[in-house]
Amino acid sequence: MRKNIVxxxxxxxxxxxxxxxxxxxxxxxxxxxxSWNYYMDKFEKDGAxxxxxxxxxVISERFNKPGFAVYFYIQTLQRAPEFSEAKNNLSLLSRxxxxxVPEVLMVPDDSFDITLIVFFVALYVFAILFAMFCFKPDWxxxxxLLPVFLILIVTGVLYFFKYMESLEENWAVSVESSALHSGxxxxxxxxxxxxxxxILIVETDSGEWCKVxxxxxxxxxxxxxxxxxxxxxxxx
Length: 236
Description:
The chain is α+β, with helices and mostly antiparallel strands. The chain has three domains: 100 residues, Serine Threonine Protein Phosphatase 5, Tetratricopeptide repeat, CATH 1.25.40.10; 55 residues; 60 residues, Roll (SH3 type barrels). The chain is 56% helix and 15% strand. It has eight helices and seven strands; from the N terminus they run ααααααααβββββββ. Strands 6-5-4-1-7 form a five-stranded antiparallel sheet. A two-stranded antiparallel ribbon has the order 2-3. A hairpin with a 5-residue loop joins strand 5 and strand 6. Helix 3 packs antiparallel against helix 4, helix 5 packs antiparallel against helix 6 and helix 7 runs antiparallel to helix 8.
């Protein structure tokens, strides 16, 4: 009985190891399409896995799809901002295709904010000083309370505006070069073009279309949603 349990346990381990290496095996054998399908399925099922996003970025470069590569490198850094290889590859690729990637997309949206840290430190100090002043009023404590209170107010206001601004930011990557139109219809006038891999700010949606603004040159217009991939912020 014990031998059977050990045997089935070994079989299970072999199955797990083989299943986990499928994508890599396909890649090393040159079957990039199967490797892409494997990692895409993994990325869609477990969006928190940075390795799935990174492998998709590398395969995208093999497929000569810089737009998808930029998108998946950014998604890798959203999940693992310390992933230096992804950051280096993104830097090289962005220079190669002449696009700019904002620093804000190099880190997840839930990263520590120095303004918020200062706010909580000031709040903690203010609470202690206020309690001391209530227990034993002293002009020296009162003198210290004022600057601490001002720091508390300023950092709170700064973080509030920064937070509200981040809510309005809706980033995307153009995965295909496409024309921008004056409205959500292909028959309307072309007002500009977006290159593959360019970072976009999505301003509004209308059916299968969205209005975007290019991060590189601020050109605005409408394009079909199938031409972009929206960036998912944070460690999802």
